[in-house]
Amino acid sequence: MEALLAVQVVAQEVAGLSGDISGSLALIGYGLAAIGPGVGIGIVAGNAVQAMARQPEAAGMVRTTMFLGIAFTEALALIGFVLFFLA
Prior knowledge:
The protein is mainly α. It contains 3 helices and no strands.
């Protein structure tokens, strides 16, 4: 609830500059679309390194799965990036 209130306050501050609160909320959403995949990629890579350290013989399979996970996560960032320019 408090996070939603904080987003609303930030949107109103940005809207005060431009006068459009829906555009401000969209900009915050696009920012989250960039931050979220970054966190996801960090988690995927960190867990893959940990898995390779625990079982070095499975490093090839873990690396392949890691790259697939990174590609799918990065696709979300690209979608957010494209939507930012379309709006």
